[in-house]
Amino acid sequence: MAKVRGAIVVDTERCKGCELCVGACPTDVIGMAEEVNSKGYHYAYMKNPEACTGCVNCAIICPDGVISVYRVKTT
Amino acid sequence: MAEITLDQIIQPENMVYTRSRIMTDTVLHYCPGCGHGTVHRLLAEVIEELDLQSETIGITPVGCSVLMYNYMDIDMQEAAHGRAPALATAIKRLMSEKFVFTYQGDGDLAAIGTAETIHACNRGENITILFINNGIYGMTGGQMAPTTLPDMKASTCPYGRDVQMMGNPLKITDIVATLPGSYYVTRQSVHTPGNVRKAKKAIRKAVEYQKRNQGTCFVEIVSNCNSGWKMTPVDANQWLEENMLPFYPLGDLKVPEE
What we know:
Low-confidence stretches of chain B: none
Strand order of the largest sheet of chain B: 3-2-4-5-9-8-10
Structural class of chain B: alpha/beta
Helix content of chain B: 25-40%
CATH superfamily of chain B: Thiamin diphosphate (ThDP)-binding fold, Pyr/PP domains
Number of strands of chain B: 10
CATH topology of chain B: Rossmann fold
Number of domains of chain A: 1
Radius of gyration of chain A: 12 Å
Shape of chain B: globular
Strand order of the largest sheet of chain A: 1-4
Mean pLDDT of chain B: 95
CATH class of chain B: Alpha Beta
Largest sheet of chain B: 7 strands, mixed
Number of helices of chain B: 10
Shape of chain A: elongated
Order of helices and strands of chain A: EHEEHE
CATH architecture of chain A: 2-Layer Sandwich
CATH class of chain A: Alpha Beta
Order of helices and strands of chain B: HEHEEHEHHEEEHHEHEHHE
Mean pLDDT of chain A: 93
Radius of gyration of chain B: 19 Å
Distance between the termini of chain B: 52 Å
Oligomer: heterodimer
CATH topology of chain A: Alpha-Beta Plaits
Largest sheet of chain A: 2 strands, antiparallel
Strand content of chain B: 15-25%
CATH architecture of chain B: 3-Layer(aba) Sandwich
Strand content of chain A: 25-35%
Low-confidence stretches of chain A: none
Number of strands of chain A: 4
């Protein structure tokens, strides 16, 4: 039972699809979208949002700073 | 327990991380996965946390990060190629109350700017130098740099760097650590979340120590150049860990005596 729930918001227009966040996520939350943004990059999205713990790993590895992280405690 | 929805999580009061407000909304021109963006963000976070935005003067180099002044909402000055430490010396001596840093790549700091770097550090100028080492000239098309590893391929050494003909790689951070004027010298990387956290701590120390007026603070960040190395960003970070880090080991080379 997860005590902490997290979520990320990706600024899809700034995302360059480098996929560093995918490998940085310890709970395999992030995937690359089938769709592309206006520059043609497959942007990151939450493919498995239930598993996110809001650990911030994806946001601090992101070179373009496109990820914002939210976290709540659920009891 | 009622299941919490994503909309309930994504509320302003629950935000734990977002890009520093010192970073402007301009989209970085760097290649996808480039470590420059990460280091820019770390520096912006440190400046924000220490409330130095109005006191900071940055010196940008020539190289990929030449347009850095578009990305950070602080005062910045462009230097001629390699001359950033000389310009920072002048600015710091004229405005000693300001926080002055230079941000340089390996082609700028370790090649054309070697003299300025070594002499600024040897004089013990009270500046902070951020040195991004990716072992290649990224902006001009991936040519061999002084920091290119032995046998590493680049566009001007397509069969790998032959040390018999092209000389040995330069570990300029190790040289700086031996100089009496340097105060804090460290080598970090930004290829994993853990290393990013350590790098941020090192940058924070290098910024804070400038207030002590004891000498030059020098932070090397071993970074990737996936376009120059002809790899995907994920492969480039893997290659960095396997090849760059054994040659450029991470850690503090010189720490202040407390």
